[in-house]
Model the fold of this input.
Amino acid sequence: MHIIIIGCGRVGARLASLFGSAGHSVAVIDKNAQAFERLEPSFKGTRLVGIGFDRKLLMEAGIERADALIAVTNGDNTNVVAASIAIDDFHVPRVVARIADPIRAGIFAKLGITTVSATLWTSAHIYELVVSPELHNLLSVGSAGVQLYEFDVPNLIVGRKVTDLTVTGEISVVAITRRGASFVPVLATTFESGDRVLVAVDTRSITKLRSMLGLPS
Amino acid sequence: MQSLCILIVGAGKLGRESAQRLINAGHRVTLIEKDPHTAEDAREIFGEQVIQGDGCDPKVLERAGVARTQAVIALTGDDEDNLIVAELARRVFSVTHVLARVNRPDNEWLFTAKRGVDVAFSPASVVTDLIKREIDRKATGL
Done:
């Protein structure tokens, strides 16, 4: 793939490495040449100095053939403008913009830009770590209506079946990892000591899951 | 022209001069300015009509009464900010008239109706065009 990354801060530089070492063609844009010092010496992609939504620069970066554009500068507004150009004017298939402000992230997500708000993710994750240490929150699905949790099987449910932990429309056991191997269980699958379980839970049913697992709420 | 409620984002010289003229013409003007010192300067002239805050933040726009305005004018020194103000004014708050300043002529192509801008103006382009016209005029002896 050909990837354009706008903003060579910590996140941009890291993404450049990830894509570069996976063999993709990468062009990085930053308005400050010094930012490229963050890139690993092994980085073989293109470095361009300039403003991330400058048309000539984007063309030079190969936006016409880009498979993805990632806007991760420190400026929410620059990221949104660059993302909207990629989507509307150049029809880049995958576009992600980092927007720190949760409210603006919500607004622009509704206007069709895939947004990542570190503020939202980080605060949600830390909240979970404090409130729910036994349940490891892996993923917030969509706009946080569904959560994916991973946990070690408590003694309380060893010997019980997946169907006992299943609540239609609310709690669903998605995968079990047992002795290093993962599989998708059936309702009749029995929980064994040492199992690591992945469940999908409606956010409103998390307290129910906790009580079914014998965890304090 | 009827009296309008106008919101100007950016209380630099251009914002202040424009606000004054619009007030003299009988309109109600509110200014939003991000920089505390600039906002303070503007307050000395316009008092409570100046809101200190980021005009690209929907909450600040709401606080400044964007819902009641008929026109939003984005006059900051950063094109990306002006574009976001326009986008929010048009798509989130459905403001009737949206005007935006273009700081870098290379960015003019972005200030389109699709991005929420009814009128875009670029002081740099205006100056360049005027000079060209003046030179042509003298050259053809008109």
About this structure: The domain at 128-212 of chain A is CATH 3.30.70.1450 (Alpha-Beta Plaits). The interface with chain B takes residues 51, 53-56, 75-78, 80-81, 84-85, 88, 101, 103-104, 107, 111 of chain A (CB under 8 Å).
